[in-house]
Structure formats: structure tokens, C-alpha cells
Design goal:
alpha+beta, Nuclear Transport Factor 2, Chain: A, six-stranded mixed beta sheet, 4 helices
Length: 154
């Protein structure tokens, strides 16, 4: 009787754990979908030079690690003061960017880490540069946004 009870306890334990694991996988899968949507909206706004729309895809404070510096932008108003897409375009001979690869490397119900490769193109459609990055997309107060970006791009 002792072995039977022990075996039944193991089976019951597995039954209790299995639905939780499935629910966590479903939550992570949904999180990746929602986070990816934010990534796509980010790139659409970036390419449209829509600074306000771009800011709407971010969470604040927002962190960007690039060019040997860490920039923490406290709020949308400061982001809009600091962001000048026309100057960016002139500086880098830039017309648009494209995602080459977006791969979720870690995901939970409210945060996703994406390994990203993107390219910048000039007005002639020529690829100017390709960079690797890491994006952290998070859900805060029911809204998904990009919390941090670490990039090898200037």
C-alpha cells in the first residue's frame, strides 16, 4: 500500500504541475506575439520619422546602450526634445531601416528579450550598415513597450 500511495502522490503532483507549465508557455507565447507587434510598430514609426509615434512604442524611463554610452530618457517629453529624425537621416545617409532578424531569446508573461539584427538603407535603396542589438520589451500597466535597447549601432 505504501508504494501505491507514493506513486499516486507523484501522479497527482505531475497533474498539478503540468497545467501550470502549459499556462506559462501560453503566456510566454502570447507575450512574444504582443512584444513583436510593438517591435514592428517601432520600425514603422522610425521609418516614417514619426517621433511621437516612435515614443509611443517605448516605456519610460527608457534605456539605450550604444556608442560607449548609456542614455536613460525619463519620459516621452524628453524623448521628443532629444529625438531629431531628420538630423539622424542626414548624419547617417539614412532613408529607412529593416529588421533582418528578430529572435526571442527569453520570454515570460510580461517581458521578452529579442536578439535583433537590422540594416540601414540610403535613399537609393543601398544597404549602408547592419547591426546586432538586444531589445527588452515589457508590459507595464497593461501596455507593451520597449524598455531598453542595447545596440552596436551609433
Amino acid at each position: 500500500m505504501g508504494k501505491f500511495c507514493a506513486m499516486m502522490m507523484c501522479v497527482l503532483g505531475l497533474l498539478l504541475i503540468a497545467p501550470r507549465a502549459d499556462a506559462q508557455e501560453i503566456d510566454a507565447t502570447l507575450a512574444v506575439e504582443q512584444a513583436r507587434d510593438v517591435m514592428d510598430r517601432f520600425l514603422v514609426a522610425f521609418n516614417a520619422r514619426d517621433e511621437s509615434g516612435l515614443a509611443d512604442t517605448l516605456l519610460f524611463p527608457h534605456v539605450r546602450i550604444a556608442s560607449g554610452d548609456v542614455v536613460v530618457t525619463p519620459n516621452k517629453a524628453q524623448f521628443l526634445v532629444d529625438m531629431d529624425m531628420d538630423a539622424f537621416a542626414r548624419r547617417f545617409d539614412w532613408a529607412h531601416s529593416e529588421w533582418d532578424e528578430i529572435q526571442p531569446v527569453q520570454a515570460g508573461a510580461d517581458k521578452v528579450h529579442f536578439k535583433v539584427t537590422f540594416s540601414r538603407f540610403n535613399a537609393k535603396g543601398e544597404r549602408n550598415a547592419t547591426f546586432n542589438s538586444l531589445y527588452v520589451v515589457q508590459q507595464q500597466d497593461g501596455r507593451w513597450g520597449i524598455r531598453a535597447r542595447s545596440s552596436f549601432a551609433p
